[in-house]
Amino acid sequence: MISPVEFQLPDSMKKQKPMPYTFIRRNIYLTKKIRKRVEDDGIFCSCSPSMGSNVCGRDCLCGMLLSSCSPSCRCGSSCLNKPFHQRPMKKMKLVKTEKCGEGLVADEDIKIGEFVIEYVGEVIDDKTCEERLWKMKHRGETNFYLCEINRDMVIDATYKGNKSRYINHSCWPNTEMQKWRIEGETRIGIFATRDIRKGEHLTYDYQFVQFGADQDCHCGALGCRQKLGAKASKPNLSSDATLELVVCEMETSPARLKTIPAEHNDYPNGGQYSGSSTFGPDESKGCFDNCIDALIELVHPVHNRCLGIITRFDKYSRKHTIMLEGGVLDILDMSKVEWKIREV
């Protein structure tokens, strides 16, 4: 006769059960909170409001320094540089994934650069963080929800947080974490690094610091680093997978105006205002303004030879935003680097 035993769920099903947590809207400090800013911390912009228009766009000094405008700024109520105050979090819904547990998908279209959600939780010091990690490890837990603010301050969303705790890792992410200064307080915002369509999974690069055994990465992205915390390998231009990785991003991006002259498919040194250029300023101007979504090969000052996609051109700074391999965004003066357009 078989002895009765207590029924237990298989380990695979246990792992799929989401960890319960308490929903909060703002960080809860379990350590000494940084004092609120009395004046302006010495950072303020010179943007001036005009009738019927908003101010503090991309050229706002505070915004470029990832600092919210303060009462000392002259921009007034029409200021756009208050992402944590004036911009509601985007619509998103919780879903189950095949290999990554719970995840979030966008429930509306999100444009590049837009504020998605704030990462919130309990703010703890380094000592408390270490104690919690060891306890979680001894319990056999593998899901960590920790985000470092500075050397001795960590946001822990394990027990208290919001939907941001469910955003999964990807080696080719569509959002990024940004550290903002808001009235003397450091807060973490998640912003879109490219246009995101409704129904698309929200991801960012955890830049994971390993604690315990290595964890496999299941993001499924082309060029996946295979392990959480693994460094991106040096780009290899001869790899078909590398080209496929960049082309894939072009195909999934929303359509933009493309007016690249067929006869001008090679632009050494970027052309414009460069003494070694084969094109004059007038002839290359069209490419500077209209090469959005172009796949290029360039000699990067840090990454050496690599592939990238031109995603944006700033007419004020005359610089381009380039999405490099691995999802890294960089802003470059194309007149000072060697580059050429690659055929897809």
TrEMBL record:
Any single biological process term in GO: methylation
Chief location bin: nucleus
All copies of domain SET, residue ranges: 90-207
SUPFAM superfamilies from the UniProt entry: SET domain (SSF82199)
Function text: Histone methyltransferase.
Gene Ontology annotations for the cellular component aspect, listed alphabetically: chromosome, centromeric region; nucleus
Name the record gives this protein: SET domain-containing protein
A molecular function GO annotation: histone methyltransferase activity
CDD domains linked: SET_ASHR3-like
Pfam families named among the record's database cross-references: SET
Location of the protein in the cell: Chromosome, Centromere; Nucleus
Domain AWS, chain residue ranges per copy: 40-88
SMART domains: AWS, SET
